[in-house]
Design goal:
Elements: H1 3-8, H2 16-41, H3 44-47, H4 49-76, H5 85-99, H6 111-132
Helix pairs in contact: 2-4, 4-5, 5-6
């Protein structure tokens, strides 16, 4: 699976290794693009609509790529990709809230900022365990062939 398919498609299944690769790519891209945005906008990225809009676009792109990555990993565990909407939905609500300047001021956090941090942390821990640590379904499932290849070992007859 190539990188665009990994990050921009919800079709099929991926194993833990590809999921972790995708996470590393998203974190690195977020860091680099966020740093560039900071260099271009400075503190105005928090206080002007154009700065908040650029931050929103970056957030939306990263959230969509993360959704695609998580959806394929949930499918590898033979679970519906709708479970990946948890992080996408809360993340988009936070991004819209930041865009509308209801949250997102790094110098004046409010209760909504804290609530978003708590909810996103809980979802993050769930995803870390479910998607990053637990093995996918062995053999083919409802979403395709096993990304690790091979079928599960045949059952051994009783002795």
């Amino acid at each position: 699976m190539n990188i665009p398919d990994l990050l921009f498609s919800t079709q099929g299944r991926i194993n833990r290794g590809k999921w972790w690769l995708g996470v590393v790519i998203l974190v690195a891209c977020s860091f680099v693009l966020g740093w560039l945005l900071w260099k271009v906008q400075g503190t105005s990225m928090f206080f002007t609509f154009s700065g908040r809009l650029m931050s929103f676009i970056l957030s939306a792109a990263v959230l969509f790529a993360g959704f695609c990555l998580n959806a394929k990993r949930f499918q590898d565990r033979n679970k519906p990709k709708t479970l990946a909407y948890a992080a996408l939905g809360v993340g988009l609500l936070k991004a819209v809230s930041d865009l509308l300047r209801m949250t997102g001021d790094p110098w004046a956090h409010n209760g909504s900022d804290t609530a978003f941090q708590v909810v996103l942390s809980v979802i993050g821990i769930w995803y870390l365990v479910e998607l990053g640590c637990l093995r996918g379904t062995a053999g083919p499932n409802d979403y395709g062939a096993d990304p690790l290849g091979g079928d599960p070992a045949p059952a051994q007859p009783g002795i």
